[in-house]
What we know:
By secondary structure, the chain is mostly helical.
Amino acid sequence: MYLAAVTPWLVWFDATAHRLPNVLVVPGIGAGLVSCAGEWVVDARVPVVPLVAGAGYAGFLLVMHLVGGMGMGDVKLGGALGLASWDLSVAVLSPVVAFLVGGVVSVVLLIAGRRGRRIAFGPFLLGGFWAAVLLVALAKC
């Protein structure tokens, strides 16, 4: 629910200023960790999918940051999105959709002669997450 509340703000901030403010992203990580702890206490089982997805998504984006190409806001947002992935399908589809759509937009920008321009990747990360949520929800109906 936290991600649903902040998604419009994060998209707007990243699209206009190329920044994902910590004040909006970091609480998402906290909410995901609290949710995982709650599931662990209530169900007496460790929520492996969100924990591995959060660490994996953030780790992959951190490598992308270190080689130059992602901002640290994207890294933190990836962790929050992974922690919000309750289902393995959402955890896998979310980054796949984000990178596919982001890649297509990048190619279009290159063809249009806008080489060297930065694009805000946060909206693609969030769009990929919400597309994955929608696809998984529709598949389970």
